[in-house]
From TrEMBL:
InterPro entries tied to this protein: WBSCR13, WD40/YVTN_repeat-like_dom_sf, WD40_PAC1, WD40_repeat_CS, WD40_repeat_dom_sf, WD40_rpt
Biased composition (Basic residues): 50-62
Superkingdom as given in the UniProt entry: Eukaryota
GO terms classed as biological process: endoplasmic reticulum unfolded protein response
Region of interest called Disordered, as start-end residue ranges on this chain: 30-69
Compositional bias per record (Basic and acidic residues), positions renumbered to this chain: 30-45
Alphabetic keyword roster: Repeat, WD repeat
Protein name, UniProt field: Transducin beta-like protein 2
GO cellular component: endoplasmic reticulum
Signal peptide boundaries: none
PROSITE patterns: WD_REPEATS_1, WD_REPEATS_2, WD_REPEATS_REGION
PANTHER family in the record: TRANSDUCIN BETA-LIKE PROTEIN 2 (PTHR44321:SF1)
Length: 438
């Protein structure tokens, strides 16, 4: 009996040992399997990461959008330092510089004497924490003002020339106060240096002194303003918009230099639809307008407006237009340029004849259009590039005018001077057209 009990106990103990061994074996097998799975997962993750890295390395870099290409025999040069769309252009009164501003938060100053060179260097002024939508040179060409797109105000920059001929740009300590409620569409400084004009789309025009004090406000009563400017003589402010006319005011100052008042001078009436844009000749005696009605007009504004004399309409010319069309009159009043979307058209002011066409000048609609003070070039903006064209229309018109004067002149000295000017202009024109023909 005792022996049987001993055998039973031994069998139970052995069974327990076998069960424990089996359990341990299964646990080790399970752990080994889990370890292999983890190892496989880790290897798979490493492979996936390597594949992803390799794929990323093989992925082509995102390229910058290509610059719009444009070529034409009358294209003198393309200025391409801006990294974003150029919104505004302005020539200095001394004819030496062109200022441009863009959405890249910079203002660029270009030398006009480099326009015909292969390389076009420029000086850069940074607009801290903002960007300029408009830029204008001061009358002495030693400063420029900008309209800040975000700050919605004027910031003045002084230009200090260094010994090497380059400039240092220093912003004024304070910006002008915020006064406009609508988006500002134009800005200008009077050549007299007496005032600054800003115009917003909501029909409001503000006349400022150079320290930021408001001298006067004008309501144009045109529903919207599309364009505004100060005449080169510095006496008049003009604006156009939804209505089919251009309204002109005189900004009056006392002999002592103190501001007096703003009075209505005259209107340009004759279009049958809203006026998109206008421009003055350098002596302020001629104006051109372009309208939604599909015409541009040339006006004689050298009138006695204080005696209620109205400007004379000299010419009406059909043209292609679109929303936002711009017009520019050469300083000597001989050439007219009109934009239609991305295209440009150049006309003779004396005959109204279309002389040159430039298509797809920019990748976007043209935003600004200006002749240089010496009547040699026409510049346009519409994307990152600034196009510079030879003003052959102006050269032809100048030669024709001087030949007429030469026939009428009886003074030997005057005839000699005119003949030399004709020869010089013809030589320049021949050089340009020969390049065009080649």
């Amino acid at each position: 009996m005792e022996f049987a009990a001993l055998v039973a106990v031994s069998l139970i103990i052995g069974a327990l040992i076998i069960l424990v061994a089996v359990a341990v074996s299964k646990q080790k097998a399970k752990e080994s399997e889990q370890e292999e799975q983890n190892k496989a997962a880790e290897e798979s993750s490493v492979k996936a990461s390597a594949a992803k890295k390799q794929k990323a390395q093989q992925r082509p870099r995102k390229e910058k959008p290509q610059q719009h290409t444009f070529s034409h025999p009358l294209l003198a040069s393309s200025l391409k330092s801006h990294n974003a769309a150029v919104t505004c252009l302005d020539f200095s009164s001394n004819g030496k510089y062109l200022a441009s501003c863009a959405d890249d938060r910079t203002v660029r100053i270009w030398s006009t004497k480099d326009f015909l060179l292969r390389d076009h260097k420029c000086l850069r002024a940074n607009i801290e924490y903002d960007h300029a939508t408009l830029v204008r040179f001061s009358p002495d060409s030693r400063a420029f003002i900008t309209w800040l797109g975000n700050g919605e105000t004027i910031r003045i920059f002084k230009m200090t020339k260094k010994d090497d001929g380059t400039f240092i740009f220093k912003a004024a300590p304070e910006d002008f106060p915020q006064k406009h409620k609508g988006v500002v569409v134009d800005m200008a400084i009077a050549d007299t240096g007496k005032f600054i004009m800003t115009a917003s789309v909501d029909t409001n025009i503000i006349i400022w002194d150079l320290k930021g004090e408001v001298l006067a406000s004008i309501n144009t009563n045109q529903m919207t303003n599309s364009h505004a400017a100060v005449s080169p003589c510095g006496r008049f402010v003009a604006a156009c918009g939804f209505t089919p006319d251009v309204k002109v005011w005189e900004v009056c100052f006392a002999k002592t230099g103190e501001f007096k008042e703003v009075t209505r001078a005259f209107d340009l009436k004759g279009h049958s639809a809203g006026v998109y844009s206008f421009d003055f000749s350098n002596d302020s005696r001629r104006m051109v307008t372009v309208s939604k009605d599909g015409t541009w007009k040339l006006w004689d504004t050298d009138v006695e407006y204080k005696k209620q004399q109205d400007p004379y309409l000299l010419r009406t010319v059909p043209c292609r237009v679109s929303e936002g069309s711009r017009i520019a009159l050469s300083p000597d009043g001989r050439a007219v340029a009109v934009s239609n979307g991305r295209d440009l058209y150049m006309y003779s002011a004396s005959s109204g004849e279309l002389e040159e066409e430039f298509h797809n000048v920019h990748s976007e609609d043209i935003t600004d259009l200006r002749f240089d003070i010496n009547n040699r070039f026409l510049v346009s903006s519409g994307d990152r590039a600034i196009r510079v064209f030879h003003n052959v229309t102006g050269y032809r018109a100048a030669i024709a005018d001087m030949q007429t004067q030469l026939k009428k002149s009886t003074n030997a000295g005057v005839k000699q001077r005119l003949q030399q000017q004709i020869t010089d202009a013809q030589t320049t024109l021949d050089a340009i057209t020969n390049t065009q023909n080649n």
